Amino acid sequence: MRHGKKVNHLGRTASHRKAMLANMASSLILHKRITTTLAKAKALRMYVEPIITKSKSDTTHSRRTVFAYLQDKEVVTILFREIAEKVANRPGGYTRIIKLNNRLGDNAEMALIELVDYNTVYGKDVEAKEEKKTTRRGRSKAAAAPKATEAKTETTEEAAPVEETPAVDKATEESKGE
Is residue 49 part of a domain? Predict the structure, then answer.
């Protein structure tokens, strides 16, 4: 029975699990989002969030501690330079897990884990763009006004050549008839 045991062993030995989580954390820091199984994503969140918290204080000791977990100098540099700046005022919750469809091969639950401050889907800019005022007919006022002016100019331009064309045809018919 697993009373009070928080660590999901993921069916691996301790050394394999440690290496896998270190590699997944490095990939998450490099690429800002990765797709994996739901169980691994939840284990990775518990692994990487304390590391990101540690990166907020840029000291030699914290860099060495983070390097002991990640084992990659370039990833540690990116973590302390870029990511630590963005999460400096965030009190926690640096990652987001989004459930995806099940994997086709073995029907495993899949998930997307991403760093919250690096998303492009749920940003404030997207919400601002979606807020459009519409008329009662459902069109936006900005879109309705230019279309109306374009329609007026198109009808006047189209009407003039249509009237001239029959006049030219009448002149050619009269010259043929004579």
Answer: yes
In a domain, 100, yes or no: yes
Query: Residue 7: enclosing H or E segment and its boundaries?
Result: none
Q: What is the pLDDT of residue 176?
A: 56
pTM, two decimals, is 0.67
- Check residue 174 and give its pLDDT: 56
Pure H helices in 10-110? 14-31, 38-54, 60-70, 73-78, 84-86
Nearest to 39 by CA among 8, 16, 12: 8
Domain CATH for 80: 3.90.1030.10
Is 6 within the bounds of a domain? no
pLDDT at 6: 86
Q: Would strands 33-37 and 95-99 be described as parallel, antiparallel, or unpaired? A: unpaired
Q: Which residues constitute the domain of residue 48?
A: 14-118
Closest CA to 109 of 117, 118, 123, 99: 99
Q: Which residues of the chain have pLDDT under 70?
A: 120-135, 139-178
Q: How many structural domains is the chain composed of?
A: 1
